[in-house]
Write a structure and sequence with these properties.
The first copy, chain A, is α/β, with parallel strands linked by helices. The first copy, chain A, is built from 16 helices and 15 strands. At the A-B interface, α2, α4, α5, α6 and α8 of A face α2, α4, α5, α6 and α8 of B. Chains A, B: Keywords: Aminotransferase, DNA-binding, Pyridoxal phosphate, Transcription, Transcription regulation, Transferase.
């Protein structure tokens, strides 16, 4: 039988025993050889296949090492009763381990949400998706682009960086060249790279309190010592930063527009004072301006980077926030020697982005589609902010406090102390509504009892339904 | 004049001096106020605009801080002669800095290549691109998916991990659950994450020599001490690994199929010995099996991971290599507690992948499109390997040495010592051919005078044209 089932190619460069082993594993896996089946003795198998007995020994050893067969007293080798596929390989303790915890999804994963209050994301329903797809296909079928993309600079698509350099000048008075731009998978990668370049273990880093937990986590991962600077209605407390200047800290991380999580914007007076502190004390700053595009009250304040000419301020922006949350893209703006170092570090973890997608996106900046989309979003999100805040005020206004944000995509809603957010979150889930339990926004010392409520991606019907559920579960 | 040009909104929450500053910057940027224009004195401006003189002082200070205006002796404030936009902000030393060096593109960036010899990439012309786009659109327009994607597990799309767990079982006898899979942007990110979890500064890591430079760079970045183990025609020297076991090294990095750069495959005998060493000495292994799918001589050897049940082997695979080089995707397979930690680390640098794309790809695995595509590619690339190797042998065979690779997408071509690869690379560029100068493949100690020549993405016409150019520049 086995001389028919097992095909041996004597001209192959692969040793015969390996061929034999692989063929037998196939027979076992496909069910031809069932668990418990007795295999021929080494001598009989060798005879049947016309190979040296040592070849059969080696093949059996290989298959046994992979647990497909085992020796049974007085029976010789048999096909294993518990085949390797039937048990998870490597993973003895699997069932006891919880699944990887997603920082954006604290619990209730088994519920199917009908409605979601997110952290502040754009509405993908108004995004220029078809145009992106059109240009993406174009880029793909230009044979050249795909070929060349492998050898495009790892800082990002040449064409997109060119488009960005024009756009950043127009929108933010940031006069930068291509060499000052590194395109990343979302603003988060830009934070990680900037921090990796600047921080050594033990360095002091100033962050806002409350602050952006995923930035803090990066700094801590790199061994930094965090100093928390209070954030009030005018943004981060610059007088406290001035005091810290006496002891030569390494880095300040700041979110000038719509600070995360509280949505406050740095006041102009503080901004000016901060610029003069940077000039005087020459400390490094990561300016995370992920929300620049969405300022409703008036024109956004200009980035610190646009007023600071000595390369101390590294500027970070987000494309994701203007577009579609699943398409992650951001950028880091810095002096070219830093961009060069950041590019090297980026290659270690992500050789290059999707350069066809980046080229496709460049089209949208070049022909003004993105700019129009941002203006359109700005108008719509401002209306939605007003509707949502009015609903909150009218329906549950006595139970919460919030300030209408100047911009951004979320309201910072503080709940009355009588509400336990973890309980509310569970109750909401049972109503089909995803509501954060707020734990991610808390600092290590304080329970803020608050959540960010993203309004930008919700239409009025959804808002009304959400606030009705909130009202119900809060017993208002 | 200024009371017409400068609009002030006294109901705005923005301080008047900020409004004033922003408006004036706009006038300067738009060219209404030309460089050198004298501005009204503080008193006149305040009078004209009906604001307090202190407001004008604050506005002028803000604009001056951003270098839009400056004070000129005996003239008061004038619009700056060198406007901020005309010089690159931050970046005094810009012109002296070289652009970020791309490790995959050593030089000649200004040439327009007609032909490219790459490191070993798939042919995007045969990829199921239209199907991916179709499913991508489907995923996008399923409102739910985009909404939910924000809250999908950061380990990667639920659906794709499920598809992978089935596929890895069928193709590699790797019986893994979703919790054992982390989806990454290319295999490189998987290497970075696995190494970040396992390596502490000072740890000893065993790597092949010659070896994959981008993996070595990751280990060195993390502070590891590299020990280079020779790689010969049977793969890495396992006897040398055995000797190293005496001193308790931390990690072995191994590429079992088509080692990078030399394309050799680990022999079955060495593989078995290595498995027993791992079981005996319990060291950790990163098994980078980026090229598993493309084995021509016979069925690929099974991963070490499939024979090792204690979680010491972390397995890395690549989707990019089976699909399209610009769409970067890979995965890490490990015990769930390690995947959980790796997911946390991944979030710090890349909050989540493009989950719509991942869902789209899951379709292709579920309905067998990917499997068919891989079989088709395998057949085509084997033909191309044979054609390319025959051309090399017939046309320049006396000047080079190479072994026909068992699999993979590249041939490792060693040039006769009389050829200087850096010179050849320059000459090739002038003929419109991109040829690596080989420097990336060299170890620190040896000039191998060799390059990887990717054949998989070349059709016969391109191969003939490439070999003709090689012949010409080598004066054969």
């Amino acid at each position: 039988m086995y001389n028919i089932l097992l095909k041996i190619d004597r001209d192959s460069s692969q040793p015969i025993y390996v061929q034999l082993a692989n063929e037998m594993i196939q027979l076992i896996r496909s069910g031809v050889l069932k668990p418990g089946t007795k295999l021929p003795s080494i001598r009989n198998m060798a005879k049947e296949l016309d190979v040296h007995p040592r070849t059969v020994v080696a093949a059996y050893d290989e298959i046994a090492a992979q647990d497909w067969i085992c020796s049974k007293p007085r029976s010789g080798m048999i096909v294993a009763m518990n085949l390797p596929e039937l048990k998870p390989i490597n993973f003895q303790s699997d069932t006891e381990q919880p699944a990887a915890k997603n920082i954006f999804s604290e619990s209730h994963d088994t519920f199917r949400y009908k409605l979601i209050i997110n952290d502040g994301f754009p509405d993908h329903r108004i995004a220029p998706f078809e145009q992106i797809m059109k240009y993406y296909k174009q880029a793909f079928y230009q044979n050249e682009s795909e070929k060349m993309s492998m050898y495009s600079n790892s800082s990002g698509s040449f064409r997109l960086r060119k488009a960005f350099s024009a756009y950043l000048g127009e929108s933010r008075s940031l006069a930068v060249n291509m060499e000052n731009i590194l395109i990343t998978r979302g603003a988060q990668m830009a934070i990680y790279l900037a921090a990796s370049l600047l921080i050594k273990p033990g360095d002091e880093v100033l962050v806002g309190d409350p602050g952006y937990f995923l930035a803090n986590a990066v700094f801590e991962q790199l061994g930094a010592k965090l100093t928390k600077i209070p954030v009030d209605q005018d943004g981060i407390d610059v007088d406290m930063i001035e005091k810290a200047c006496k002891r030569k800290f390494k880095l300040l991380y700041i979110i000038p527009h719509h600070h995360h999580p509280t949505t406050v914007t740095l006041s102009a007076a503080r901004r000016m004072k901060l610029i003069s502190l940077i000039k005087q004390h020459q400390f490094k700053v990561i300016e995370d301006d992920y929300d620049y595009e969405f300022h409703y009250a008036h024109r956004p304040i200009l980035p610190l980077s646009s007023a600071e000419h000595d390369g101390h301020v590294l500027y970070i922006g987000s494309v994701t926030k203007s577009l579609i949350s699943s398409m992650r893209m951001g950028y880091l703006i810095a002096p070219s020697e830093l961009i060069s170092k950041a590019t090297h570090h980026k290659q270690l973890m992500d050789i290059r982005g999707d350069l066809l997608f980046e080229d496709a996106l460049a089209n949208l900046y070049e022909n003004g589609t993105m700019q129009r989309h941002i203006r359109k979003s700005l108008k719509l999100y401002q209306q939605r902010r007003d509707i949502f805040c009015r609903l909150l005020k009218n329906e549950i206004g006595n139970e919460i406090s919030f300030k209408i944000p100047d911009g951004g995509m979320a309201v910072w809603v503080v709940f009355d102390k009588k509400y336990n957010l973890s309980e509310l979150s569970s109750k909401a889930a049972r109503q089909g509504l995803r509501l954060s339990d707020g734990s991610l926004y808390n600092s290590s010392t304080a329970n803020l009892n608050a959540v960010r409520m993203g309004f930008a991606s919700l239409d009025e019907t959804e808002m009304i339904a959400i606030v009705a559920i909130l009202r119900k579960i809060m017993n208002v």
